[in-house]
Amino acid sequence: MSVSFSVQSAPARPDPKAILTLLKPVTWFPPMWAFTCGAISAGVPLAERIPLLALGIAITGPLVCASSQAVNDWFDRHVDAINEPNRPIPSGRIPGQWGLAIAIFWTALCLLAALPLGVFGVSAVGIALLFSWGYSAPPFRFKRNGWIGNTAVGFTYEGLAWVTGAGIMLGNQVPPMPLLLLATLYSIGAHGIMTLNDFKAMEGDQRMGVNSLPVLLGADGAARVASLIMLLAQAAVIALLVSWNRPWHAFAIGVLSLVQAIMMWRFVQSPRERALWLSALGVPFYVSGMMIAAFAVRTLPIIAEASK
C-alpha cells in the first residue's frame, strides 16, 4: 500500500529549524545518560578524564543518536505522513533528498568525531551506526517487528552506550563482567521503554505493515509485556547488587521499581491514553536506578583491579 503526501511551497533548501527538529534533541538523553553511567561504573577518577567524557557524551547524543533519528525519519516519511504529517520531511520543510543527505552526512561525522576515542570507541560507534541504519532502512528494517526492533534500540541506546563509556574510561578494553551484566539487563528493560513509544503510532503502523508490539499484541497485551520486561530487568539488577554485597543500592532501586509498578498498574488500565504519561513520569525512575547501579559497582574489587 502506498501513501502519498504533498509538499506545499517546498523551499529549495531545508529550514535550519527543521533540521534541528529532524535530529530530535529530546531523544539524545538516554544514550548520553547510559554512557555517563558506564563511565562512572568503571571506577576511574573522572576528573582526570573530563575532555574524554565530554567527547563521548557529545558523540552518543548529538551525533550518533541524532543521526539515527535522521535515518529513521527518512525511511519513515510515508508512515509519518499518516501519524505525524507535520514532521520536517512529510511537511516539506526538508524537501527532496535533503533528509537522506543529512542522514548520510551525520553518519560520516559520527565516525570522524569518534577517532580520538581509539579503536574501542570507533568500533562501538560503527556498531551503533550499523544498528541505526538496520533499524530503519531496507532490506533489514528491524522496526518492522516490535520484538526485533525494540531489542536493537535497547541494545544500542542503553547497553552499547554503557559498555562504551566504561570501556573507554578503562583504557579501551572490554569492561569486567559485572558491568556487562548491568548493561545487558538495562538493555533488556529498555525494550519495554521503546514499546511505550509505539502506542502513539498504532494507526499508521497497522496501515504500513509495521508490526510493533501494540499492533502484534494489542494495546492491552503490549502494555502488560512492556511493564513486565521493565520490572523483571530491574529485579535482576537488584538480585545482582545483593549478591555483590550492595544492599542499600539494591534497596534504593527496589523503591524506584515499586513506584514504577504502581504507575504501571494505572497505565495498563488505559495504555493508549497513558503511554506517554508513563514514559514521561515513570521512565525517570528507571534511569535513576541505572545511575545508582553505576555507583554501586564502581568500588567492586574486580572493577578496582581493572581500573588500575
From TrEMBL:
Gene Ontology biological process terms in this record: chlorophyll biosynthetic process
Keywords: Cell membrane, Chlorophyll biosynthesis, Membrane, Transmembrane, Transmembrane helix
Transport found in the keyword field: no
Transmembrane segments: 28-47, 52-71, 98-131, 152-171, 177-196, 217-242, 248-268, 275-297
Pfam families: UbiA
CDD domains, per the entry: PT_UbiA_chlorophyll
Topological relation to the membrane, as annotated: Multi-pass membrane protein
UniProt subcellular location: Membrane
A single MF term (Gene Ontology): transferase activity, transferring alkyl or aryl (other than methyl) groups
Matching InterPro entries: Chl_synth (IPR006372), Prenyltransferase_related (IPR050475), UbiA_prenyltransferase (IPR000537), UbiA_sf (IPR044878)
Top-rank taxon, per record: Bacteria
Cellular component, GO, one term: membrane
NCBIfam families on file: chlor_syn_BchG (TIGR01476), PRK07566.1 (NF005742)
Protein name (record): Chlorophyll synthase ChlG
